[in-house]
Amino acid sequence: MTTTMTTRSVSVSRAGVVFTLLALVAVPLRAGPESKPREEKDHLAEKVAKKVEHARRKAEKAEAELAEKDREALKDFQKEVREYAHLHAKQLAKLGPPDPGDAQAGIALQKALAAAIRAKRDDARQGDIFRRGVEPIFRRLLAAELKGPVALPAREAVREGNPKHETGSVQVLVRVNAEYPLGAPLSTVPPSLLLTLPPLPAPLEYRFVGRDLILFDSVAGLIVDFLAAAAPNLGGPVNP
């Protein structure tokens, strides 16, 4: 009798254990307290990664568009300076060559050429060649070559012959179609800067008057166009 009861008790206990195990297997495991924050972190990281990728693609697109705009602006600039060079050559051909041995005749020819070009460009205004599209390009290039401690020698070179920095220099009025005074010095333009800026056809040259970058017709002695305060601070004393 005792033996039978014990056997039954064991059987029931085993059945209970089996039932309990089955119940544990059947019931889905609940998420632990750390799994939800981890999922949120993963989701947030995925969103951030998508935003970063979107921003990268947007920046690349903007950079490509800017590069294309720069190319078009530089094309327009080159077109304008070529047209000016053509106008210069046409007016010079009408006047004929000067007598190389007569300095006064050379000066007279220069003044006559300047007057002829001014007459053809009587409505010229600042920015006709340094247009709005190309202006920021020149400012970036000048800043890259003339700004910071490394560019000190280049800034010193630009101050050489610069009417705003040379003691006793003749005053130069920076204005489109203005004649550059015969007695005024001409600034140096460092080779590194010349290699950076867009090339110019003869007789045009880049020069500085103070911080202003001018397009200078070296034969007619004319200021063709200019960019005001294009260069960074050059340092050194400045003439009033």
Description:
The chain has 240 residues and is mainly α. The chain has one domain (55-227). The chain has helices at residues 2-26, 35-95, 103-120, 135-146, 152-159, 191-196, and strands at 204-209, 212-217, 222-227. A three-stranded antiparallel β-sheet has the order 1-2-3, with no helix packed on it. Strand 1 (204-209) and strand 2 (212-217) form a beta hairpin. The protein is elongated. 20% of the residues are buried.
| Average pLDDT figure | 84
- For the record, give the distance between the C-alpha atoms at the N and C termini, rounded to a whole number: 127 Å
What is the strand content? 5-15%
Percentage of residues in helical conformation: 40-55%
Separate helix tally = 6
What is the radius of gyration? 39 Å
Question: Could you tell me the number of beta strands?
Answer: 3
* SSE order: HHHHHHEEE
Which consecutive residue ranges, at least 5 long each, have pLDDT under 50?
1-27
Oligomer: single chain
Main sheet summary: 3 strands, antiparallel
- The largest beta-sheet arranges its strands as 1-2-3
Protein traits:
single chain; 240 residues; mainly alpha
Quickly describe the structure.
With 240 residues, this protein is mainly α. It has one domain. 54% of the residues lie in helices and 8% in strands.
Give the topology.
Elements: H1 2-26, H2 35-95, H3 103-120, H4 135-146, H5 152-159, H6 191-196, E1 204-209, E2 212-217, E3 222-227
Antiparallel strand pairs: 1-2, 2-3
